[in-house]
Structures are given as structure tokens and as C-alpha cells.
Amino acid sequence: MPIHEKSLIRPENLQTNDHLVIDGVDVSGHWSTFIKPRTITDYNEAMEAVIWALPGGENIHRCWQCGSCTNACTVHAIEPEFNPRYWIYLIRQGLEEELLRDKDIIWQCVSCNKCTYACPRDVVPEGVMKATAHWLELKGHTAKSPSTHFDEGFTESVLATGKIEEGRVLRSFFKRTGQPLNQPWLVALVGGLIRRFPLAFLIRLGWGTVFRPRTRGWRKAGRAIEDYVQERQAAQRLALRLDGKGATDGRQ
Amino acid sequence: MTDKPILPVLIVGGGPAGLSAAHAVASSGRQAVIVDKADRLGGAPILQGYAKLVPSHEWAKVAIGGMVARVQQNPNVTSHLNTQVQSFDGAPGAFTATLRNGTVIEADSAILASGFTHFDSLNKPEWGFGTYPDVVTTVQVEQMISSGAGIRCPSDGRVPDRVAILLCVGSRDRQIGREWCSKICCTVSANLAMEIRELSPKTNVYIYYMDVRTFGLLEGEYYWKSQEEAKVKYIKARIAEVTSDGKRLVVKGEDTLVKRPITIPFDLVVHAIGMDPNVDNMTLASVFGVSLNRYGFIDKAASYVTLGETSRPGVYVAGAATGPETIDDSIAQGQAAALAALTRAGTRQVRAAE
Amino acid sequence: MDGNDLKRVAYYPGCALEGTGHAYNRSTKEVGKALGLELVEVKDWNCCGAMEVKNVDPQVQTYLSARNLAIAEDMGFDTVMSPCNGCYHNLKKAEYDLAHNPHAAEVNDRISRKAGHKTYQPGGVETIHALDWIRDAVGEDELRRRAMGKLAGLKVANYYGCMYTRPRHIYPEKDKGPGSESTLNPHFMDDILAAAGAENVDFPLKTACCGGAHSLSDSDTSTKLVLNILTTAEACGAEVIATECPTCHTGLEMHQVRAEKVLGRKTNVKILYFTQLLGMALGMSASKVGVQENMSDPSELLRAKGLG
Ligand SMILES: Cc1cc2nc3c(=O)[nH]c(=O)nc-3n(C[C@H](O)[C@H](O)[C@H](O)COP(=O)(O)OP(=O)(O)OC[C@H]3O[C@@H](n4cnc5c(N)ncnc54)[C@H](O)[C@@H]3O)c2cc1C
Ligand code: SF4
Ligand code: SF4
Ligand code: SF4
Fold first, then answer.
1. What SS3 class is residue B237?
2. What is the ipTM of this complex?
């Protein structure tokens, strides 16, 4: 079949044989270009239930594919492949392989909740995005996203002291993601501040570093939360039947 | 048993449901009293000035007007317009209703045919109604057609090149607490689309849908015909917002079938508005002592062996008061409620001689 | 808010107002003081979880806010005011979830007991934003009288961001017609600044997202989103973007710098908290409302407008 619209075909589905003779006709090279079929041959029936069990995914089963989430979506506007409606469909039908094609952008949801505002079925697509990104990490399909690192550093700080100190969270984040703190724009930013407002800024920065802000009487609350979180995460791992593989470090 | 005459049946609302109930009651020889808060009988199709009705293709003025005339000419029917029931006491067979204008009506039983309220599109501001004059509702399009003004953009009176009809505005939407389908708006939209195409063949009409619910026999007559003959285009997308580029309206959404964002210019955008519970339902519920269902419509006993019963004996309900209904169904329910009232246990049957 | 005493409310500043949003904290307090309003800080408050903790566990996030609400209630207040959109949103969301989601209520009860304090029951206190507070406790007429048109000639784009209006269901008091806030086209900040004489420009991105949740973790996305907000504000003729959230404010400032350094796109619009503008309209100096703590330096513009 002549290929009219090559761009519609995924490159990995194009097959060319350097040497091929069919019925005595030499069709080597581009003459023998075949398109591998993309027939869907099965559904992963467990997939929806798995996302459903993760925080944020509770309402995924309500979706009726209207597209309101995608067309309201902040990230979709700058990255057309970012498509909550489509991913929800894939998850609900269990088309895992298709979903994995987009695995590296799902975490980019900025939690603006424009989707939640628009969704007529109250699916909370924002939550589904978080659950899906979480699932990809738990399954080891993706490394922990920068966003997960940030969430975890942040949460640890809250559990420990009841509060966060931005400088600390920032430093912890850059450390966790292995980014240097001396990025030119950051330097310019901090530099500008120091120039205009040296003393108070430095004092505040230093103060937070030495005297970590904490909530008085937090210890018991922090511990109660930790117990709960551990219990939940054990339950999730059970629901996902995880065997210890995957990017689960720090989440036990 | 005494020979005291049987009291009339009180009917609240003179729309299709109330008119059909009144006609049925009157035809059996009993008295019917209609109370309607509007200044005319006829209900939504008359008060809102609908154009040609689905599925009869008859003009609302003619079809519903005929029902009104039939009732007005019947000596067994009395009407009280511009008023409402203020209080309602007593028991089946001997109810007393007092109207706001002071009239007291003794009634054997009552039928609530108080209908619905049109969804107010201002509650979905993202779709531009109230912000842009060229965003209108299906009711306004009905009026454009029935008044003979034709299809025109309210902003400058031009005939639109391109019209978008957005389905399910104010229906099927948890964000605004409306978890029902309004049943008729898909068909009404297909019908209006065909009318627009007929009035102005140069105008292209697009219908943005999630599902197309032209149920039963309406499928061929409206959905298929609109596509096959009138060349109305159906696009599977629930749009995100209607804005304006200064000249034309811009409809933004995702075309879900091609998985692509769309931003398409239109001259006129029409909201296919749904049917809300009557805004008076809380009052009606307390005056008549009937319960509402979880959507806010009047609760109708869900049973195969009762006819239009509410939670209060002797008070029946029919038509869009019970939930979104078509005119045909409202009429059928009006007749059913009339039958229920006429045959209420304990009622003496009207003797043949009378 | 009907019937609540807004002249004296519980104050929940949140973590950001003790860090990057310090200028907002300061200017809010100063404005309150000048207008005769009293703020009593919630005792031993904790972080609301911002946009992060919920991704680890949503019920924990609900608890975090419930604890703060419980304390405010214990202190005898019926209203807690938060100037930060994130905190405000989380307090509101906790209120909603505790009333509508039995699981959230159960977990809250469980953790509260273990932590040794009273379990917060929904309806105990009402959460309001700094915008509600100033608008309702003082009123536009009084603001107009006090500000005497001091912001006249200042062209402002009012930027509300995401969390002040979304998702709609956690804000049952909004979209209630005239007098109430609109989730699609919020206007309380517009109203307040207009009362102080400012000229609000027609700004279509009032509730656009600045990418705050990924300000650091996905800086490129945030920079693009912020740049769009900045350039649109400029195109609309704004000299200043007024903000009412420390995360938005910092995001705009940070990515204004980053857009210039990384994408080579320089924008000149200034970014100020609405409380800073209002404070200066009430005659305060720029330093009193913490303008020197802002990353973008607006002194030239302020001088030209005779402010601060
Ligand atoms: C845009 C649009 C187009 C439609 N087109 C069609 C169509 O083509 N075909 C079709 O089958 N259906 C159509 N419908 C549906 C149709 O309008 C309803 O099925 C029909 O009106 C229901 O009749 P009803 O008598 O139950 O209620 P209504 O028509 O609503 O009548 C109720 C009556 O009760 C009165 N009333 C209300 N409250 C009180 C009170 N408290 N006290 C006293 N009186 C009161 C009102 O004044 C009114 O006269 C359409 C609906 C819409 C929104
Ligand atoms: S919350 Fe995430 S998925 Fe939803 S609109 Fe915003 S970016 Fe898109
Ligand atoms: S808006 Fe809601 S119902 Fe519509 S496609 Fe998105 S998640 Fe599904
Ligand atoms: S009839 Fe059609 S337009 Fe109306 S609510 Fe139902 S699906 Fe939507």
C-alpha cells in the first residue's frame, strides 16, 4: 500500500526489509515498506481498579469522555500531547501500552484544577493525573518525577515539624533531583534581592536555616499522621500487588 | 351516602399536562378548576413562544392553542389566572384551597401540573451567555422563528454564516448539581438546526454533543434527517469556553474524535438549555404537603400500579413537574392523573344520568 | 459571613507568609491596622500541606487544615482569615471534604484523637480570604473615602490565580449573583483597588495558572505560563500586576527573571501584592508595606505615580 500520510504512522510500526523477494519480484529497500497492524488484542481489565485505589483516582470510573478536562487544561494548551481525557480512556479500557507512550509527561499536571472546574461528572481529573503519575512510579515505569521529589521533601518537613521552611525545601529539592543551586537565573534572583534588601533577607534566610520553624506541640500529631500514612501506603502496595520492584524507595 | 355533589378537581398549572387533565376531567362530566400563575393558559410552549413542535411539526401556537381553546370552551372548566394557591388543607374528598387573590376553592382532589423552569444560562458563564449578545438559548431561537424575524445575530441583525448549538447546557452536569438529562433538547436542537438551514441555506449549523439522545422514533425523523438532508454537522466535544475575537465568537474545545484542540469562529452560539425543577417547587411542596425527589422535582410514586400519585393521598402530579418530560408524555400523564383523581377510592362515580 | 464579626478575626498566615511572602504578611497586617481591624494569629498553627501533601495522601492534607480550624474555633473565633490562596483553598477544601466525605471525616477524627486534640466538625468556623475580609469588614465606600483616589492613573491587571476560585464546589458562597464573588471572573480585588482609585485593565487571564505547583520541579512549563501572563498583562496596558497569593506572586516574580535569563524575554510589568498597593493608597511608605522585599523593583514606577 502506498503511504500517503507517513506522519500518521508511528515510526516503530514501519518495517523495511533490506532484502526481500516476493513472488520472484525483488522488493528490497523502501519498496518493501510494511505497516505493522495496530489492532488492539486485549484489555488489561485490572488497570482501572488500580488507579481507582490510589489517592486522587477515586472517581475515574465516572468519566464519559466529553473532553471538557482536556480542552480546559493549562498544560494541554502548551503541550498538545498532554490529554487527560484520552489517558482516562486508556486507563479505563486497560490500554496500558498506549498509556506508557505518554508516561514521561503525565506528571507535568500543574494542579490548576481547570479540569475539575469543567468536568460535568466530577471525575476530578487533576487527582487522576496525580494517581496515574504515582502509579507509573510505583510500577517502575518512570523514575520518580521532580514533582514527586518535591512533594516528598515537603511532606517530610511537615511531618517532622508541622511547618515548612522554603529555603530548606528548596535545597532539599535541588539535592534530591541532583540539580546545582547555582543556576544563573536563581543566582540573578537571589543576587537582586540581596543587593536591594541585604540585611533582612539574609537574616531571614539564615534564621530559617538555623532555627527551623516548628509548630509547638506538634510531635504527637506528626506521629499520628506518620502511622496513618504508613498504613495507607502498605494498603496501596497490596492493592497494586507490588513486589518491591520499581521506584519505591522512600515510600515504604 | 349523601347526595352532596362531588367537588371539582383542582389543577395547578395550565400547560400541556394541566390542559389535558382538565379536558379529561371535564369530559367525564366532572368539574375542573385550573389555577395558573401566568396571565394565559398554555404553559411553556405558549408563554415562551416556541416555534414548530417536535414531533408533530405543528406550530406551538396552533397545537397548544387548540388545547387551550378546547378547555376554555368547556363549561365544566373554570380558570383562575395570575394567581397561585396560598394554602391547601383538608382531606381527600374535601380539600380547601385558598388562592392568593382570596378565592376559596373546595376540591375533591388536586393535580399538580406546575411544570418546569428553563435553565438559566447565566449559571454557566464560561459559555458566554450574558457576556456576548450573540450567545443565545434555544428558547430565543424558537422565538426568532415563531415571530417570523428569522435567524439573526442579536448584536447587529446579520444573518449568521455559522451557528453552533451546544447541547446539555444546564443538564447532565454535577458541577451545577444537575444530574439529569432534559430528554427533549437533543431533538429540539436537531429540529431547530433543520429550521435554520431551511430559513437560511447559506448558514452552516454545527451541533456539539456528548451523546445524541433523539430517542425512539425521533432518531430517524430528527437525528438522521438533520444529518442526511439538512447537512447539519455533529461534533463530539463538550466545549470549554466561548470567547470573542472582537468580531466573531470563538468556540474552544477538544474535538475528541481527532484528539485535537479546536478554536472555531462562529456568528451565533445557541445553548440547548435544559429543564430545571420549577423554581416554585419548594413552595408547592410545603403548601400541598408533597415531597420532592432528590433532584428537586415533585416526587411521583414509582409504581406500575398507581397513576401519578404523590406522597399525599388525593394529590396527583403530571408532566414536567415530575422531571423532564416531552409534551406528548406530559399530556399522557395529565390524562393519567385525571383518571386517578376521577377514580379515587371513595369517590362516587358520576351517574350516567347526570 | 453574615453576622460574623469581621473586625476581629483569627489570622492564619501559613508558611509562605513567613518566608517568601513576608511582604504580603507585613502589608496585610499594616493595612488591617490602618483600617481598624484586628488579627489574632491562630495559636501554634501548622502548615496546610500546600499543593504537596495531598499527593502523598489527601486525607492527611485534610487533617492538617482541620487542626488549624479546630484551634481557631477553640480560640473562640467564628471566622479565620487567610491571605494565601493555597491556605485559603485548603481550609475551604477541608471544610468541604469533612462535610461530604465520610472517609476524610473518619481519618481526621482518628488522627485528631491520637494527636490529643478535639476533632474539628465542619461548620465550626468560616474561612475567608484577605479579599473578603477587607471588602466586607471595611466596604468599598469607606476605602474610597480613606484612599482619596491615591492610586489614580495606575493601570492594574488583577491576577487571582487558580486556587481562589477552583474547584467551584469548595466555594459554595461564590457565584451567588450580585455582591458575591464570581469563580469565572473574580472581581473583589478589582473592586478594592478601584475604590482606591486604580484603573483596572480588562485582563483575560485573571484565573490563568502560573504553574506554581511546578515552579521548581518543572520550571520550563512555569516560565512559559508566567511569560504568557506577563505579556498579556502588558498587552492589556497594565503597569502593575496586583496579586493576592504568595505562591502566585513569587511565581510571577521568579519566572519573570527566569524568562529573561533563559528565554531572553524581558517584561517590565511590576508585580505587587494588592495589600501593598492598598497600603500605599492609605498613605503608607513603600518600606512599610515591604516593597523592598519584592524581587522586581517597582520604585521607579511608584515614584512616577507619587506612591510610597
Ligand atoms: C426550548 C424547549 C423546546 C421544547 N420543545 C418541545 C417540543 O418541540 N416538543 C415537546 O414535546 N416538548 C418540548 N419541550 C418540552 C415542553 O416544554 C414540556 O414538555 C412541556 O412544556 C411540559 O408541560 P407541562 O404542562 O408539564 O409544564 P409547563 O409547560 O411548564 O406548564 C406549567 C404551567 O404551570 C404554571 N405554573 C407554574 N408554577 C405555578 C404555580 N406555583 N402556581 C400556579 N401555576 C404555576 C405555569 O405558568 C405554566 O403555565 C421543549 C422544552 C424546551 C426547554
Ligand atoms: S489540573 Fe492538571 S490536568 Fe487539570 S487542567 Fe490543570 S494541568 Fe490540566
Ligand atoms: S471532563 Fe470529566 S467526564 Fe469529561 S472527559 Fe474529562 S474526566 Fe471525563
Ligand atoms: S436531551 Fe440531549 S441535549 Fe438534552 S440533556 Fe439530554 S443529552 Fe443533553
1. coil
2. 0.83
Is the domain defined by C3-128 classed in CATH 3.40.50.740?
no
Last residue of a domain, one of B274, B294, B314: B274
Of B123, B125, B175, the CB nearest to C185: B125
- Tell me which chain B residues have a C-beta less than 8 angstroms from the C-beta of A99: none
pTM of the model: 0.84
**Pocket-testing residue among A60, A63, A73, ligand 2, by greatest number of atoms within 8 A of Cβ:** A73
In a domain, A116, yes or no: yes
Residues facing B315 on adjacent strands: B110
Contacts (Cβ under 8 Å, ≥6 apart) of A90: A96, A98, A99
Residue A124 alpha carbon to ligand 3 centre in Å: 8
pLDDT at A247: 39
B130, B269: one domain: yes
From CA B111, how far away is CA B16, in angstroms rounded? 13
Instruction: Select from A62, A140, A68, A75 the least CA-distant residue to A103.
Output: A140
Burial of residue C4 (CB within 10 Å: 0-12, 13-18, 19+) is middle
Query: pLDDT of A22-68, one tens digit each?
Result: 888 888 877 777 777 778 888 888 899 999 988 899 999 999 999 99
B292 vs B148: CA distance, rounded Å: 39
DSSP string computed for C129-181: EHHHHHHHHT-HHHHHHHHTTTTTT-EEEEE--STTT-SGGG-TTSS-STTS-
**Both B296 and B314 in a single domain?**
yes
pLDDT in tens, A111-126: 999 999 999 999 999 9
What does the angle CA B288 – CA B290 – CA B293 come to, to the nearest 5 degrees?
Answer: 140
- C169/B126 Cβ within 8 A: no
Q: Decide: helix, strand or coil at residue B243.
A: strand
B110 and B127 share one domain: no
Q: Are A126 and A236 in the same domain?
A: yes
Q: Is there a domain that residue A134 lies in?
A: yes
DSSP characters over B37-100: SSSSSSHHHHHTT--BPTTT--BHHHHHHHHHHHHHT-TTEEEE-S--EEEEEEETTEEEEEET
In whole angstroms, how far apart are CA C150 and each of C143, C144, C154, C282, C289?
Answer: 11, 9, 9, 8, 15
Ligand 1 atom at shortest distance from the alpha carbon of B138:
1
Q: With contacts defined as CB-CB under 8 Å, which chain A residues touch B174?
A: 119-122
What pLDDT was estimated at residue A252?
33
B258 touches chain A (CB under 8 A): no
Work out how many domains chain B is built from and give that number.
Answer: 2
Domain count, chain A: 3
Residue A15 lies in a domain: yes
At B302 the three-state DSSP class reads: coil
In the prediction, which pLDDT does B103 show?
Answer: 97
Distances in Å between the Cα of B145 and the Cα atoms of B133, B142, B156, B195, C96 are 18, 5, 17, 8, 45
Tell me which residues of chain C have a pLDDT lower than 50: none
* Residue B289 pLDDT: 97
> Are residue A137 and residue A233 in the same domain, yes or no?
yes
CATH architecture of the domain covering C147-304:
3-Layer(aba) Sandwich (3.40)
Last residue within a domain, chosen from B274, B289, B313: B274
Chain position carrying cell 488489561 = A44
In a domain, B1, yes or no: no
The domain of A168 spans 147-218
Which residues lie across from B290 on neighbouring strands? none
For residue A118, give the ligand 3 atom closest to its CA. 1
Residues B302 and B290 placed together within one structural domain of the fold: yes
Contact between C168 and B125 using a beta-carbon 8 Å cutoff? no
3-state DSSP assignment of residue C236:
coil
Residues B95-115 pLDDT 10s: 999 999 999 999 999 999 999
